[in-house]
Structure formats: C-alpha cells, structure tokens
Specification:
This protein is 13% helix and 43% strand. The protein is mainly beta. A hairpin with a 6-residue loop joins strand 10 and strand 11.
Length: 237
C-alpha cells in the first residue's frame, strides 16, 4: 500500500516535473493516450523499467522483482513479491476531460495468502494500479485511488486505507475467477474520483504500479501489459 511518505515523494516528483517541463503522453488524434507499452526496454531487463521512478515505503523492504517479458504475444512487466512492498510511479500529466478512461491489461497469477485490505495488519494486494493526484501538503491532501484484485471483497467496494487517509482502494476483480488469464480493465477515473472524493478530476498527474506482501509475508505475482487513457463513454462505470 502507498504510505504518506510515498505520497510525499510522488508530490515532489510531479512538482519537479512541472518546473522542468511536462512530457506529454503520446496520443493519436481523437484516440487513446499511451502511458506504457514496455517497449523502451528489451525483454529480460530487470528492476525498475525506463521512465519510472522507484519509491521505498517505510517497512516495505522493496525488492523490485520486476522483469520485462513477452507473454502470450504481448510485451509486459512481470511483478513478483515475496514479503516485500515495491512501488514504481510515472508522471503522465494527462487531460481527463478528453480521455477519462484508465485502461490496462493485466494477468494475475496468484493472490497474497491471508490478505485483507480492511485489516491494517494484513493490508496487502497483488499487483495493482494507482491514479494519483499530488496536492500540497502531500501528507494530508494528496489523493490516491488504487484499483485492486481482492481475494474476497465484492467488485465495486471502496476501501479506505487503514494506514493513510490519502488512499482509497476500489475493487475491480474478486476471488480466483480469471486468475492466470490476460484481462482488459477499464475505469472511468473522473467518476471514480467524484465517488471517492466528492468532485470530478480534470487531470491525472501520476500513475503508479504497486505489489505488496510485506504484511502477510506471503507471495504474489502479476503482469501488466499496455496501460493507456481512452476517450470517454459510460461502459466502464
């Protein structure tokens, strides 16, 4: 789970980027905004991939057991965790008024044993995506939504973090159905922001990927393929 210290680092990342000039994501006219395709690194590269920043959370003991792979005909980042919490973030500065749908491909191989986001002592999750809105002061005002695959909670459940008030999770997959398969996910980020925080968002400054088993001391593995923002409709709400 992202902690207050990580929120502060993400805020500093976005602030620094605004001073040196923003790098706009690639967008075809009227089409999706590409956030990541994993094509910037050759297959087999390990650790933090190009274009991403690593963040060490207190007590997380990050291993960054990440590898760029080819799997089922697609380039992907394989993320593994064994009693650690590893998170990477990327500054995107995207316009949600044009592309409010956050879309990603993922393949979850295993869920962390004993994980329960509603319990502080077991608040782990397999690979998940964060949409992040850094705000000053970051420790109390940044906004983070994590899209998670949970072992038991119903899809659509919103779970406020038991460790920091700046983070909320939304369950997008549940249980063992679909494990081991490549699946496509789409979330209307503007609607989700309104649901969690009471108002719409117009931009998305930062996206992060995280994998977390440091509380349960278990293992988990997930892969992420293409990540992008898409023009809006209501099919993903």
């Amino acid at each position: 789970m992202i902690t207050p210290a990580l929120s502060r680092r993400v805020f500093l990342l976005a602030a620094a980027a605004s001073l040196v000039g923003r790098v706009s994501p690639t967008r075809a006219a009227g089409g999706p905004v590409s956030i990541e395709t994993w094509s910037a690194a050759p297959v087999g590269v390990t650790g933090v991939p190009p274009g991403w920043q690593k963040y060490e959370t207190p007590g997380g003991h990050p291993a960054y057991d990440f590898t760029v792979v080819e799997d089922a005909g697609r380039r992907a980042l394989r993320m593994r965790s064994a009693g650690d919490h590893s998170t990477i973030a990327k500054e995107v500065q995207a316009d949600l008024t044009a592309t409010p749908i956050l879309a990603w491909q993922w393949r979850v191989l295993a869920l962390p044993s004993g994980a329960n986001l509603e319990n502080r002592a077991t608040s782990d999750a397999t690979g998940h995506v964060f949409a992040i809105w850094p705000r000053f002061p970051a420790l109390v005002r940044s906004r983070l939504i994590g899209y998670v695959w949970d072992p038991a909670l119903p899809v659509g459940t919103v779970v406020p973090s038991r460790k920091t008030s700046t983070v909320s999770f939304i369950v997008v997959r549940r249980g063992e159905s679909g494990l081991g398969q490549w699946l496509d996910e789409r979330r209307h980020v503007v609607d989700d922001h309104r649901r969690v925080f009471g108002e719409a968002a117009t931009s998305l400054p930062v996206v992060a990927l995280s994998i977390d088993t440091n509380d349960t001391r278990s293992t988990t593995e997930a892969m992420f393929g293409r990540i992008e923002l898409q023009p809006g409709d209501h099919s993903s709400r």
